[in-house]
Automatic annotation (TrEMBL):
XdhC Rossmann domain boundaries: 78-218
InterPro entries: MoCofactor_Util/Proc, XdhC_Rossmann_dom
Pfam hit, one: XdhC_C
Protein name, entry field: XdhC family protein
Protein origin, superkingdom: Bacteria
Segments passing through the bilayer: none
Amino acid sequence: MERTTLKAINAARAARRAAVVVTDLSDGASQVFLEGTSFPQEWESLIVDALRSGRAGIAAVEGRSLFINAHMPPPRIVAIGAVHISQALADLAAVAGFDMTIIDPRTAFATAERFSAVELLAEWPEDVLPSRPLDRYTALAALTHDPKIDDYPIRTALEAGCFYVGALGSRKTHAARVERLGQAGVPQDAIGRIKAPIGLDIGAASPSEIAVAVLAEIIEAMRRRDPTGRVGGAR
C-alpha cells in the first residue's frame, strides 16, 4: 500500500470517518475517497455500495479491474436512559456488532448491577457529549421520556449528522417534542429526521421487543444512509 494511501486511511480512522480505497489492479495505483465527499461519476455507485455494506470486492469498469475496499469506523449506539429497553438493547447491540454507551444522570437507574457489560455514564448528557462528540457513525436513542434529559442529546445528534436519531414516546409526546425543538431553533427538516415513536412498527409490546424494533430500525438506517454527504439517508 502506498504511504499516502495509508496516511489517508489512518487520518480517516482517527476522525471516525469512513473511507474507500479504489485500486487499479493493472498498475496498483490507489485513490482514497471519504464518506461525505464527491466521487467520480463512473465509480459512485460502487463506492456508495461499499460504504453502505462495508464489504470489499472487485469490479470491472470501462475495461479496468478495480479492487474496492471499505474502511469503516466501528458503529456505535448512544442510549439516553438506563431503562429496561436499554438493558435489552445492550445485549442485542453487542451481537449485531455495535459498541454501546448508556448515559443517564439518574443514579437510581444507572447502576453497575443493571448494566455490567456496557459502558455506563451516570452523568447529564450536557456534561458528557461536549468531550465525547457524536458523529455520522453514531445512532442516538433517547429513551427516558423526560425532556430535561432527552432534548439536549437529540439536538446534538441532529447537529452532528448522526445516521439515526430515535426517541421514545407516543405521537402526542413527540408533537410536544417537535414544538420544543422548533422553539429552540432546530430546523424543521432536521426535526423530521427523528424516528418517533422509536423502532420499526412490528407491534412490539415488552421492553425486549421494543429493543429488537429499535435495533432493526438502526440497522436499516445505517445500511440505507446516503454516503455522498446528504444527511438522513436514501433508499
